Amino acid sequence: MTQIDEKLEPILVEVLHRNAGEPEFHQAVREVFESLGRVVAKHPTYIEHALIERICEPERQIIFRVPWVDDQGNVQINRGFRVQFNSALGPYKGGIRFHPSVNLGIIKFLGFEQIFKNALTGLPIGGGKGGSDFNPHGRSDGEVMRFCQSFMTELHRHLGEYIDVPAGDIGVGKREIGYMFGQYKRLTNRYESGVLTGKDLAYGGSRARREATGYGATYFVERMLGTKNESFDGKRVVVSGSGNVAIYTIEKVIAFGGKVVACSDSSGYVVDENGIDLGLLKEIKEVRRERISEYARRKGSGVEHVAGGSIWDVPCDVAMPSATQNELTGRDARVLVKNGVIAVGEGANMPCTPEAVSTFQKAGVLFAPGKAANAGGVATSALEMQQNASRDSWSFARTEDRLAQIMNNIHDACAETAEEYGAPGNYVLGANIAGFVRVADAMDALGVI
Ligand code: NDP
Ligand code: 2IT
Known about the structure:
The protein has helices at about 10-20, 25-40, 45-50, 50-55, 105-120, 140-155, 175-190, 210-225, 245-255, 280-285, 295-300, 330-340, 355-360, 370-375, 375-390, 395-420, 425-445, and strands at about 60-70, 75-85, 90-100, 125-130, 165, 235-240, 260-265, 270, 305, 320, 345, 365-370. It is an alpha/beta fold. It has 3 domains: about 10-55, no CATH class; about 60-195, Rossmann fold (3-Layer(aba) Sandwich); about 210-375, NAD(P)-binding Rossmann-like Domain (Rossmann fold, 3-Layer(aba) Sandwich). Strands 9-8-7-6-10-11-12 form a 7-stranded mixed sheet, with helices on both faces. Helix 5 (about 105-120) packs across helix 17 (about 425-445). The radius of gyration is 21 Å and the shape is globular. (2Z)-2-iminopentanedioic acid (2IT) binds near residues 117, 197 and 349.
């Protein structure tokens, strides 16, 4: 583990103590602290004005009961969360996750990462995150709708286009956003398009928002490969997950000439040496909401389905972990390095454990951290807010151009910051410092609030 600067150590101890029992939040905070030693040495005001303590304390945390009735007439109870972490740069902005593993610590880790990610986009958005321990798998449309309506019945009083603007994340896509927007509109009697992003094109969504996270991560890694005179062209790529981020990562990697040979879900992975058939994958995952084993069953011989196991055992040149936090361990990283991986791009939030990240860095593997590489989703959400505010609707090409520009800018800001602070090629350090400085300077200008 990297040494923490001696001025930062007591602050970290206090933050960990104050947030006991939240290991993912601790992990995210520690990684940022590991990067900040060189910053506080240059700019002592960040310590003197307590900006580091302040940034670790959410502005507001909301926890609420979500009662709903299932198809059998039973009353079900879930827990809802929204952590409004930081609004120095703009309204709180960040997704909503529905997954049985959701708890306050997970939402705080995601909200904390979101602050720096959103700052890196250069757009006026603060950081927040929300969710519930509701499990949408196996639930009917009617159950999902009633759950979303109940969730929004409580949450709506805390939202607004100038206050807090949620979007999707694991388990929340355009269906859930539609049900939540419908309930918000009904409760407030306002057509406030900009209160949620990731909306369907039928009622105020942005073109290219669906594709944005995966496309953005691929643009970022393509530019990072370019620093070594490499590209996706002709490369073997493994993408974990088979949800929104994974599917549109696969689509863009293929467009850049790469071959994606494996993808996964929580039940296992498939290997298709001919390259993943994207049309079939979309039909199975986006339309039919089936398991990944169905891909192997439909393709027949030649495609392997491995139940359980680690997708990182599949040899590749580029790895794009795009499922969930801590899905790629130190052991997995060692296997990837042994198999000759040259670049890793985090499509998910914090998918690589700290041991995995240091394994890649020590081996000289190009490593793009999630808060930089997956920022294209939230950046395009901010473009959706712009379109809603100006009652306009942009073409796919115009939106994707902006996305590509933003990703290139984020890449270059991370690379230049790493260079400036004496750690060329360290995108983790570059992303943490560039993001932190933007937010901390804005907070400082606003006084002690
Ligand atoms: P989806 O719900 O669309 O897809 C998630 C995928 O990851 C599914 O294949 C799912 O499998 C798998 N998965 C989820 N949890 C686990 C788990 N505990 N173990 C193994 N596999 C798991 O979500 P997204 O694609 O939107 O999100 C993926 C990641 O990207 C998350 O980390 C999210 O925070 C991050 N992200 C998303 C953005 C967006 O715009 N959507 C933006 C930036 C980051 P199964 O279906 O079996 O559960
Ligand atoms: O993690 C993320 O950046 C997201 N889930 C997208 C957030 C957003 O507001 O678009």
